[in-house]
Amino acid sequence: MSIGQILALLGAAIAAIGAGIGSSRGVGLGGETSAGVSTENPEVNSKLLLLQLLPGTQGIYGFLIGVIVLINTNVLGGAMKPVELFQGLSILIGCLPIGIVGYYSAIKQGKVAAAGMIMTGQRPEMSGKGITMAVMVETYAVLSLLLSFLIVNAIKL
Q1: Cα–Cα distance list, 89 to 3, 8, 79, 103 (Å)
Q2: Per-residue model confidence as pLDDT tens digits over 34-73
Q3: CATH fold for domain 3-154
Q4: What is the pLDDT of residue 77?
Q5: Is the pLDDT confidence value at 1 over 90?
Q6: For 110, left (φ over 0), alpha (ψ -120 to 50), or beta?
Q7: What does the domain layout of the chain look like in residue ranges?
Q8: Which of 3, 113, 109, 137 has the alpha carbon at shortest distance from 47?
Q9: pTM flag (> 0.85)
Q10: How far apart are CA 112 and CA 21, in angstroms?
């Protein structure tokens, strides 16, 4: 295995692990808040579920970029394509946006979702506003997904 191949696989791991850790933290924070709010106001439990799930999307985005790297390098096909040092470094750099922004935005989205849950628990009719606030954070995760996708797919192996 060449250094380029190792760098490409490291990029896939960074994308999946960074965004995955951020999502697990964000969803966990949402779950803790949802449990507390549901105890006080059980009728809003179903409205809280979407807010809890939103920070989980970054983990999906990181996983997607990781799989694209594995497909592009033919790891999933059984015989990995040769990856030169510069190509591997480029793939690694291409995976950084979703790995880093996915990590950070999932945690922040979890905090915004938790605030939306508290708001929904006190005023159930405001659940849509809580969802909208949490989705605003999602915008930056989507932009980083798009950037990582464009960079990784621009590298010809």
Answers
A1: 9, 7, 20, 21
A2: 999 999 999 999 999 999 999 999 999 999 999 999 999 9
A3: Four Helix Bundle (Hemerythrin (Met), subunit A) (1.20.120)
A4: 85
A5: no
A6: alpha
A7: 3-154
A8: 113
A9: yes
A10: 17
